Amino acid sequence: MAGRALMRRAAIERILKRRLFLGQNGKELANSFVLELIRGGYFPNDQIAEEKIEIIKESINKYVFLFNNSLETSNENTKNSLFDFLLSIAACEVEEILDPPRKERALMDYMFEVIKERIRMNGSVIAEEEKDIQIYIAVQRALFKLDKAIISYHLLKKLYPEWIQLSQAKIEEIAKNIYLILEDIEKELKHPLAENFYRICEKYDTCYLILGDIISKGPLEAQEKLKSPEVLESLTREFYSKRLKQLKNKVKRAAIYSTISIFLTKMVLAFAIEIPSDRYLTGEFSYKALGVNIFVPPLLMFFLVLTARLPNKSNLERTVLETMKIVYQSEKKDIYEIKLLKKKSFLLNSIIGVFYLATFVISFGFIWWALGKLDFGVLSKIIFLIFFSLISFAGVKARERVKELTIEEEKEGAIIFLLDSFALPFIRMGKWLFNQLAKYNIIIVLFSVLIEMPFQLFTEFLEQWRYFLKEKKEEIH
Prior knowledge:
2 strands, globular, mainly alpha
């Protein structure tokens, strides 16, 4: 559900944004919008029913109305945040209309129903509804790695079950409260216990994914298959092996593609910015520094991805056992406890803060010193540290994806603990930089305005001209 679906939704959002920027509404843009998606290869030709285009018209008009009729605010950032939020939600809704993810939705609902009966709060009292929402969010993040936009869309549908076909009175009511609704969703997504719920769902998601595979293979025979423990065990092992093979191939591809991508990006940056700067501005150009700057970042990414630990053999046995427990629920069900960490004292917090600051200074200070020894200029040092941090964050995220089949707890030794301590500053810095780039993605905007928009306008003109000629020819007969 991630991968291609994410790219498709990004394309939907980009096209919507451009067409709304041109002042089009749902009625004006729906037909050409769908044609553009088909031309882009995101949906097969002649498989989108005409009635779906009518639903898309109403859907887009709903979001345009919500934005135009929201309460006036003098804060431009708040208004922009609302526009981005509604645009991302509209893209999710349009994608669901065109290609409903029925199988994935059924699997998420099943996991939610099972998990919510097993989670117990230890040392914290939260409302049952609040707990259910957090489990609902965690299941989506764990099973299919859904992002903020699609989870927010699902939360809206949970809050308003009739969201797809709201009455005009209801749309007007929501428009008046849209900022409060947005604020409530943000609070749920940033809940202090969100990670606790996610860790439990992430631990057991493998079993549900395999059950989904078994049911998808033969939906009609699935019920009979699940009645037999021997058949279920055999199928669990079969689909686990398939997923493990896919995971190994994915890791290899990620290591190769990410390395090539980073290498090419570094080459462009080096020749466009670093070499001219070092040669003509600072006079600190060095071939040795250039070589390190170009080759070290991609090699770091290659190392981080390729050395990620795949699940061991004992993890398969644990997966079979847990899958059996889910299907053949006994009277005594497993309980997953969410334990809250005790609040640290001011003194302990201060000591941890000082230690973290020290690791930050030591980690960045050491790299800065080493780059100086390698004859790096100031600008090259800054660019190297930025890339190093971004790659550290991306590499850790990639390594986490390798654990998607892992149920067993990983044991970490003293060496890993020390490495994590001094790598954390780079990872945190990389995460911050990534979030900033996501907010201000100038490259995508330029691509859309300078390349994609003129091309699509031209092809749309040809499309409309073709229809015009067809109509005129038909009039002759």
